[in-house]
Each structure stands twice: as C-alpha cells, then as structure tokens.
Amino acid sequence: MINDPYYRRRYVISGIAVVVVLVYIIRLFYLQVIDQSTKDQADNNALVKQTIYPSRGLIYDRNGELLVFNQPIYEITMVMREMGKEWDTTAFCQCLQISRVEFDDRITEIKDKKKNRGFSRWTPQVFMSQLKKEDIASLQESLFLFPGIQIQKRTLRDYTYKAAAHVLGSVGEVNQNDIDRDDYYARGDYSGRDGLERTYEQQLRGEKGVEILMRDSRGRMQGSYQDGQLDKTAIAGTDLYTTLDIRLQLLAEELLTGKIGSVVAIEPKTGEILALVSNPSWNPKVLVGKERSKNYTDLLNDETKPLLNRATQATYSPGSTFKTIQALVCLQEKGINANTVYPCSGPGSSPIKCTHHHGSPVSLENAIEQSCNPYFWCAFRDVLQQDGYGKENADFRHRYELWRNDVMAFGLGQKFTDTDLSEQAAGNIPSIQQYDRTYGKTGWKAITIRSLSIGQGEILVTPLQLANQAATIANDGYYITPHLNKNDSMLTHRHQLNIEKRHFDVVKSGMHRVMQYGTGRHYAVDSLHMAGKTGTVQNPHGKDHAIFIGFAPVDNPQIAVAVVVENAGFGATWACPIASLLMEQYLTGEVKRKYIQKDISNKILNESVKKW
Amino acid sequence: MRASRSGNILQHLDWTTIGLFLVLVLFGWLNIYGASYTFDQTSIFDFSNRAGKQFTWIIGSIVLAIVLLLIDYKTYDVLAYIAYGAMLLLLLATPFLAHNIKGSMSWISLGPVNLQPAEFAKCIVALTVAKYMGRYEYKIRTWRDLIVPFAIIGIPAMIIMILQKETGSALVFAAFLLVFYRQGMSGYVLWVGVAAVALFILSIRLGAVPLPLGTGSVGILTCMLLLTVIEIFFICKEHRMRWQALIMTGSVAVIYGICLIVNIWVRMPFNLISMGIVLALVIYNIAISIYWRKYRLLIVAAFTLFCIGYTHACDYVFTHVLHPHQRIRIEVLLGMKEDPAGAGYNVNQARIAIGSGRFWGKGYLNGTQTKLQFVPEQDTDFIFCTVGEEWGFVGSIGVLLVYLWFILRLFVIAERQRNVTTRIYAYAVGSIFLFHLMINIGMVLGLLPVIGIPLPFFSYGGSSLWGFTLLLFILLRLDAARMEQLN
C-alpha cells in the first residue's frame, strides 16, 4: 500500500510467526531427537496404569460401635494381547483350581462384545472377581509366569450385626448412568446404591489413587515408574458416625420377629434417629459380593416386600394416636379449652361410636386417657364450625385450611426435605381441593369428614412422621428434622409450631394417664414416667393395624417412639409393649421385663415373614 | 472495476489457502481417529466415535464455506455492527442458557449438538474491528484513538472470562494487539506487553520473601534494577547520561558486592538494602533530571516506581485473583512446584508421548501412549501429542510448517488488499490463527502454561471448526472481491 508509513511492520508480524514456529521446531528437535529419556519412559507399552481403590469409610453407631467395615477381596484381570504363545493355560488353571472348560467358557464370555461392551485385547479385562485371599495365594506366587495377568485388590462391605439393613443400605456396581453423571466412576466401580451408603457416597468413597508401573516387552512388571513420582495415593473414605443406637435397633428388630411393621425412635431434643426398623428385613451380608444380584432378585420377588422401607415409605391412617394432635390443634384454634367437657353415650354415641367404657361427660385429659371417640368428634366439629359455614361454605373452608396447616406443621403430609433419609413417602393430610373433587365445593361439611377427627379416613402418615409427632409433643411444640448423621448437628433445622406450651401440658398429662390408667397401663414402668397413646386402625386389608406413639420420661423426654404392627389387632396389645420395652432399654440400658420381651418376640403373626 | 468480473468468483479465489485448509482439516481428522482409536474400533465413519462425529462437522464446515462464498461480500461489512450487538447479547445470555460441562458455562444445547458461542465471537469481533478501523477518516494518532477498538475486543473478552469462566477463549482476543500494531499502534505497547509478562513471571518465580509493603524479594528488586538501567540506556542518547547510567550500575554492583562479602560474617538484610538502592536510584534520577533539565530521566524514575507497584499487583493477582488450578499450572510450568500426578501430569505425559515418537514416529494408529489414554484431552486440546507420537519429528515439523505457510499466506493476502477494512480483517484472521497455534502447541510442548484452547482444524469439536471456517472463508470471499473494492 502506497503512503502507508507502517508498511514495513508486515515483516515484523510475519517475523513473529516465523520465530514462534522456529522455537517450537527447536523444542521438538530437543524432545524427539536429542532427549533420550522419553524413549525409555515410553518404550512400547512400558507403562501400566493401575487404579488403587481406597478403602471405604466405616460406619459406626452413636456409641462408637463398629457397624460396617471392609473385607479385602481380589480380582484377576488379563490383557489378552500380552498372553503370548508360550502362555501355560494348564498351569494357570491349576493355580486357580478351575477346569480348562471353565477357563475357555470364561474367555469366550469376555470376548463376546454383546455381553462385554468394553472388550479390548489391549486393556485389562476382569477374568475372575471377588476371590478370597486363599483363592489367589498360589497364583500370586507364580504370577511372573503369566504375562498379562494382574491381581487387583478391592474391598467389599462386611457387617458386625445382622441389623439395620434398610438404614445402612448397600454397595453395588455403578451403572452407565452414574458413569455419565460423575467423572469419578469407571466401569466396574462400586458405589452406595441405597440408604446411608448412597446418601453419604461422596464422603464414604474416598478418592481413587493411581499407580504407574513399568513392564518389559514380555509384559512382566518391573516396579513403579520414576520411583512412584507420578503415582497418586488413594485417599480412604471418611468414617460415618450414625445416630443409631445399635442395642436399641437390635432389640426392636427382635421384637418385630414374625410381624410386618416398623419402629422409629428419635431423641426429641436433637432429632437424632435412635432406631429405624422395617420388618421384614434382611441380613445386610446377603447383598454383598457374588451373591448380591441373585439375592436382590429374591428379595424383590418376596411377597412381603422386604425391600420396602416401611418406616419411611409405608403410610397408614394414624387412628387414635392422632387424637393427641387433634387435641392440641383444637385447643389452639379455640374450638375447646382445657376445661371443655362433652357427653359420651359409649357404643350408642352418634355419629361416631365410642369403643371404650368410661363415665360421662368426659374432660379432655380423660378423653385422651380413655381414647373417647365422641369427644374428639365434638371438638373437631366445634373448631370447624365456629364461624358457621358462610357463603358457599367459605367460612368453614377457611377454618378447615387453618386446621390443616396446624396439623401439617407437625411434619405430616409431606416429606422431610432437609434430611439424609433417602426414601420417604409424603403421606396425606387431605386438602380442600381433594374434598372438593370428591364432594363438590358445597357438598362437604364437618359431618362429612368426621373420620378425620379420630385419625381415620383419608389421612395417611408414615411411622417416621408418627415418631416425629411424638418428639414434637415431647418438646412442647418444636421438632428438629429427624436425621442419621451424628456429626451433622441439625439444631438449626428447628421447626417451631405456633401452639402454646400450656396446651401441651394438658395433652402430655393425658398421655401420661394413658400409661397410668388407660389403654397402656399394663406395660408401664412407673419409675420411667412413660407417656403414650395407642391406636387401633381399621383398614381394608384385614385385621386392624396396631399403632403406638410415646415418649419418656414425661418431664424431660429422652426418647420418642412410634411403633406400627400391621394387621395385628389392638394397639394396646401389640404396639404398646414393643414401645415400652424400647423405652426401657434406652433409658436403663437393659430390659428387666424379659418375659414380655420373650413373649412378644415369639409371637408369629405372619407365617410368610422371614429374615433373609 | 467492471461488473462482469464479479460473476466469476472461482477465478479470484485463493486456491492455495483452500488447499492448505483442506490438508489441515483432513490430517486433523485422521489424528482424531488415531487419538480416540482403541485398537478394536470399527470404522473412521462410525458415528458413535469421535472421528465419525468430526466427519459430520467437516461436511458441515464445507457446506458453511460454500454458503459463505456465495454471499455478497458487502453483506459482511454491512452486518458487522448489528452482528456485534447480537453477539454480545448471546454471550451475556449463554451462562443462563448453558448447562455446565466440566465446570464451564459456555455451551448452549441445540438439540443433539452443543455449541460454544465464544468460538463464533472471534469472527464477529474481527469484522467489527475491521469496519471501525477501516473507515477512511480513522487514523491512530494518539492513544485515544485506540479506546474504541480496545473496547470492541475487551467487552466480549471480559464477558467470556468472567461469566463463562473460559479464560483461554478470552485470551485469544489479545491477538488483536498485532492488528493494532500493524495499523500504527506504538511498538512500545507490544514491548511493554512482553516486559509485563516477563516481570509477572519473575515476580512470581522469585517473590516469596515478605516485605513490609506486601511481598517482594532480592530477586525482584535486582531484576528491577536491571530493567531500570536498560531503560536508561534506551532513553538517554547523550554521552554523559550513559556515563551516569554506567556509574549507577557500577555503584549498585559494588554495594551488592560489599554486602555479599559482609554477609559472610553478619547476616545482611538484603531486602532493605535492595529497597534502599531502588529508592536511592529513583531520587537520584529525579534530582539529576531537574539539575540537567533532562526530563526524560523522570520517565525512568516513574518506570522504576511503576515496576514496584506492578510486581506487587502481580503478586496480588497471582494469589488472590487466579483460580487455584490456574495458579498450580503456572507454578508447575515455572518449576516452582513438582506436581507430576496432578497439574503436571498432562504436560509430563504429553512430553513423554511426543518424545517417544522419535524421528520417524511410531506410525499411524500405532501410538501407545495416546492409545492407552495416558494423555487426557488427547483428541481436543492435546491432539498434537498424537501427531508427535505417531508421525514423529518429521510429521510434527511438517504440520508446523504447513501452519506457518498457511498463516504467512494469510498475511500476504492481507497486504494485497486495496481496501483497508479487508486488510485489517485479514490481519485479525492471521493473528488469531497464530495465537491459537502459539498457545496450543506451546502448552503441549511444555513451554507455556496449560490454557485450554483448541488447535485450529485439528482439535475435535464442531464449534471451533465452524468458528475457524467462518473466519477463514469470509476472508476468502472478501479477498475474491478485492478487484471490485476500492477504499
């Protein structure tokens, strides 16, 4: 370009390009021609990358008792390309004590691209896995005879107790989904599949390491490369301290023998789950190792559905245990006060019969003690109707909404979102919309939904929610989200109800009387000051469910319990003794009433329930 | 020129460049196949693997090239500003539309394909810069004239760096400095740039000793002294001033020497001494400049003070602004940290892979280092490893020379333009390719820190291939019309 004063700068710019390329060529010349070190380092296949698997974090109970630990197992891998002509298959089979036919079958299986998508002659393929130390001992000694063969150490889970299978969860092989979602995993890795193992996978798994080994042209290992400079040590997983009390857990599991049901125990002040049992259950050892997939299928096909965690996933009508909440909400919404009395005509009452025999009229405390149905129907009605019905039921619906919000504040009808419990059901506290759909906007009144007053009908809760409800009452109106990790203080997850403390005094006194004079009197231990409420829940699947919620001691509650035994009969007969024994165990450290323990443990309600 | 000439575009196309483009793209494709090849793989056209996908990207890029050549050349100039505005909006929106791919928020999903808008931004910025600086009345007279061009490249660069966290893609815009230089920006800016990078490296490499004012060390201060003296020689053309400079250098050397000797018996506070010397130099320079009325020496004093501030700023940026992984990469490169299993792993493995190729290479598809996946990102940013391992020294310099030919050809094309806008655009294209080549290969060869930017036409990925195609073929279209364009 004429008249361009900067014309000569084109040479500078082109010069920069030339200099850059020249510098790089010199560097290449140095790397590829002069420097001999890289040649040795990368002589054909000189390096083998071997993953070192970290040991998974251990799991303890709240008192430091070891619940879950690791056992070493071994895996034999082969790189087929390195198995030359002189490879002695017979000797190899002898080392492993397998037949030639088994060997050949396994090789065909590995080579089958349909079954083994990742097959390559160049990369290690798993020949046999989950072997014990004894199985590989003789191969280990003569490993140098078999180029291409490697022994890899891994770990499997092992368990101190045959308990808490639902809570602990299990470890299994990752699927394609996991591998796509998280770069950390490779095919054949293990990860927590359910329960705590899944929730705390990140913490428990640790970090894989890499060992880079050199080998010669015949495939024999020559030790670590560059004195292990490039190796990365595996970082073991962090141990997990759970809130479980394994003694309590074991006792609860024993007491549920032969029954379908669940137990949840919570420390009210902290929201820590002391025991969480769902029966039928299984020995956690059956979901480990070679047998895992077969056993898993068996569990899946069991008609009693052991894989279902009934403590958090099954929903029941709460029955009479709901009367505690009903009393609190009715007091708070000013439908009744502590001195309100209602008449009861026993079995002749209308619209709801009373199933117990007691004097009339009854006070609130007595009504709780005697589980009087008419009292709670009247209280419920008076709360909902206190403003009348209004235009198109508007006032009534408004009252119902307030009532429902108060009930849901106990944690009912929704999942706990801020917890480490993996599988939960939400339960149901019927919404206005739900009733509108069934009856139409003006088609339902207090009398229509009278079953709700005594915890029957559309209302559904999980045993976990029942236990949390007991803890809330024990705490005089707040709860800490129930959780399983002892190290994670959840005290900030405090949920405060707006029900006055004085109302709790009335209800707690009633619940204390249940254990003194009422339905639970046979199983009380006077020195422990238990409070509770039984429930006997009608249901379409046969005999009534037995339910119990309670806490103790009543003045300074240390433990809150909920027990559900499906199709057992009276709550007082089945659920109450279990809860009572559990409170005794937790508060005194032992069970003195061995005869009750034995009696309950030996009662088989359902023949098909078995412990896996 | 006559209208009839515009009809025959084929005659005026630069076929040399197109030939080089095809060579690079096809050779790159072969190497992607090599890099992702796992010995038991099927065909290069198998669409489930990287090479097969790259094939579709290549077909797409050729279609794109043809379309670009068919469009009227005036379109690019007319649409530049509008496209720039739209691009800024898209870049701003990207982090919100994007889903996180390995820590980066720069990818937008369009059905089955993920696109990286930053790759297309380069082309639009180049067109915009060219349009702005190519105006007849535009001349770089003072630094004020450069404010707008710097803003044009700076705004998208900041968006990409801060919002999308793609430092590599943002750094590419530094390539425009060469374009500004060609258009008349002072050469000092380039020198200052180089000096700044050098001082940055030195202050990090040597700056570990704490001082009351932050951190600094004997090393830094010594370097600053040297720079100061060099600067004096640069600026002072008079005889007696050079003598002064020599005296200053000498006395500094003597003081240091004495201190070193005394240090045998008594521990000397070298930090304070160095600090004192630097301050003394500054004061001496100011005094002498006032005495002689040579105000140039004030510049030297200012420069020294600026250096002190700059080294502290470097240190601050290094320890507070950079992400930990970026810091480690730089430390590893400077040999301050041995981290061969972490950040150094890639670089070390890349070095071994390339080195093991030796003179003739291991032969196509026979590279073991890359096959056994020792080198991460081997089909994207580290693709040159495969070239080095499988094609050896011969293949590697072959590729480098083809690139050099290609880039020099772009500069030749630039210089034959009558239209300034087209020339600026051509320089932008050439500089961007040069920058990518320099950073990428420098990283693979262990000469520059690990900055993730692709090697043009080689690295796997549709966005980058199409981005480069866009850059190149718009240039070829404008070039083909060079006879029709007057200023």
Compressed to H and E, one letter per element, the order of chain B equals HHHHHEEHHHHHEEHHHHHHHHHH
Number of helices in the DSSP assignment of chain B: 20
Mean pLDDT over the residues of chain B = 79
Poorly predicted tracts of residues of chain A: none
Strand content of chain B: under 5%
CATH superfamily of the largest domain in chain A: DD-peptidase/beta-lactamase superfamily
Can you tell me the CATH architecture of the largest domain in chain A?
3-Layer(aba) Sandwich
Terminal residue distance of chain A: 90 Å
What would you report as the Rg of chain B, rounded to the nearest angstrom? 26 Å
Number of helices of chain A: 21
Class per helix and strand makeup of chain B:
mainly alpha
Structural domain count of chain B: 2
User: What Rg of chain A, in angstroms, do the CA atoms define?
Assistant: 33 Å
Largest sheet of chain B: 2 strands, antiparallel
Q: What assembly state would you assign to the polypeptide chains in this entry?
A: heterodimer
> From the helix content, strand content and strand pairing of chain A, which structural class follows?
alpha+beta
**N-to-C terminal Cα separation of chain B, in Å?**
12 Å
Gross morphology of chain A is: elongated
- Total beta strands of chain A: 19
Share of β-strand residues of chain A: 15-25%
Structural account:
The complex is a heterodimer of chains A (612) and B (487). Chain A is α+β, with helices and mostly antiparallel strands and 612 residues long. Chain A has 21 helices and 19 strands. In chain A, the strands form six sheets. In chain A, strands 2, 3, 4, 5 and 10 form a five-stranded mixed sheet that branches. Chain A has a five-stranded antiparallel sheet with strand order 12-11-19-18-17. Chain A has a three-stranded antiparallel sheet with strand order 1-8-9, with no helix packed on it. Chain A is elongated, with a radius of gyration of 33 Å. The model of chain A has no long low-confidence stretch (mean pLDDT 87). Chain A has two domains: 49-241, Alpha-Beta Complex (Penicillin-binding protein 2a (Domain 2)), CATH 3.90.1310.10; 246-298 and 309-602, 3-Layer(aba) Sandwich (Beta-lactamase). Helices cover 69% and strands 2% of the residues of chain B. Chain B has helices at 4-7, 9-12, 15-36, 50-70, 73-97, 117-133, 147-163, 167-171, 176-182, 187-206, 218-235, 239-262, 270-292, 296-321, 324-333, 343-355, 368-371, 383-415, 420-444, 462-480; strands spanning 108-110, 113-115, 210-211, 214-215. A two-stranded antiparallel ribbon of chain B has the order 1-2. In chain B, strands 3-4 form a two-stranded antiparallel ribbon. In chain B, helix 5 packs parallel to helix 7, helix 9 crosses helix 19 and helix 10 (187-206) packs antiparallel against helix 11. At the A-B interface, helix 1 and helix 2 of A face helix 9, helix 16, helix 17, helix 18 and helix 19 of B.
